[in-house]
Amino acid sequence: MHDILFTPVRCGALEARNRIFMAPLTRGRADNPEQVPTPLMVEYYRQRASAGLIISEATGISREGSGWPNAPGIWSEAQVSGWRQVTDAVHAEGGLIVMQLWHMGRLVHPDFLDGAPPVSASATCAPGHAHTHGGRKDYQPARALPEDEIARVVADYRHAAANAKEAGFDGVQLHGANGYLVDQFLRDGTNQRTDRYGGSPANRTRFLREVLEALVEVWGADRVGVRLSPNGETQGCDDSNPAATFGEAARVIDALGIAFLELREPGPDGTFGRTDVPRQSPLIRSLYKGCLVLNSDYDAARAAADIDAGRCDAVAFGRPFISNPDLPERIRRGAPWAENRNVPQSWYFPGAEGYTDYPALEAEPEPAA
């Protein structure tokens, strides 16, 4: 069933055995003061290693960029060691895994920064509430990064990419979506700069390009990916002309030879971004010639149809992988998909419940002789 999903696909140097990718999923299980991956996380990723490619949960490149309770990081030696156990487990099962590199920008509450303001493209404030260890709190105004500090943040990305390599990942993905720091530079609703990082789409993509160049220095372009969300407002981050902005971003990504580009375009029940805006994936598909991955609200039939029609090369499944650790096998057999339990608490609360306790299908009986 849906045979095209089980054909191999190449994303740069990454050869995925199927086209059922696991999307990045924040789960909040690094529940220790140093934000080190735990043995529970090792088991979680091992269970899901049959994905063609696992994109790890968003992982903080620095303490400054990490503002989600119990999210893991990749800036310390202890974190590198913890992640090494994850990658070893995935590789032992024959899987591939890349690390998603995350700086939350203005969405980091000062509680995570000893009271200091977060940083962003411009001095703006996100709407709504941040999740903190002390509960939900109003976001606070960010300070604009001066140019010399932009270079420092780019260096933080480079350091995180080097640590991901040391931790045994197969590559990295830059989180440029969902209203986080890269997205805050890309979109004119949050980027109000008048220097060379603001104004035109070409200028607003400069930060994206500089970060990608740093990642390529560490990994080579054939092991670097990007995630974008060209789908309307997300977490207060919006753009007046998405086609111009994300078209330019696609040109930058293509010119650098980046291995894969994942686009988050929510369906009718999407969580990030509006669902009533034109999709930019056809435009981006015409501009970016590498491996294009689409994500959000897919079932197996629609995934197979979009790949077969040439709209993308693979599909990244998110929430289905939470409750279906063996999602590719369920798709192969045409078996039902288990539903998530105790949502949304089980997505983010510490512990095994709703995390590693979803069972896989029983093995199929051997054919009769």
Largest sheet: 8 strands, parallel
Per DSSP, what share of the residues sits in E-state strands of 2 or more residues?
15-25%
Mean pLDDT: 95
Low-confidence stretches: none
Class by SSE composition: alpha/beta
Radius of gyration over all CA atoms, rounded: 19 Å
What brief labels describe this structure?
single chain; 369 residues; alpha/beta; eight-stranded parallel sheet; two-stranded antiparallel sheet; 12 helices; globular
Tell me what the structure shows.
This protein has 369 residues and is an alpha/beta fold. The chain is 31% helix and 15% strand. It has twelve helices and 14 strands. It has helices spanning 39-47, 77-92, 147-166, 181-186, 201-204, 206-219, 242-255, 281-287, 300-308, 319-323, 327-333, 345-348; strands at residues 9-11, 14-16, 20-22, 54-60, 97-102, 119-120, 129-132, 135-138, 143-144, 172-175, 224-228, 260-264, 291-295, 314-317. The strands form four sheets. It has an eight-stranded parallel beta sheet. Strands 1-2 form a two-stranded antiparallel ribbon. Strands 6-9 form a two-stranded parallel sheet. The longest helix is centred in the middle third of the chain and has 20 residues, at 147-166. The protein is globular and about 60 Å long. The two termini are 24 Å apart. The model has no long low-confidence stretch (mean pLDDT 95).
Topology:
Elements: E1 9-11, E2 14-16, E3 20-22, H1 39-47, E4 54-60, H2 77-92, E5 97-102, E6 119-120, E7 129-132, E8 135-138, E9 143-144, H3 147-166, E10 172-175, H4 181-186, H5 201-204, H6 206-219, E11 224-228, H7 242-255, E12 260-264, H8 281-287, E13 291-295, H9 300-308, E14 314-317, H10 319-323, H11 327-333, H12 345-348
Helix pairs in contact: 1-2, 3-6
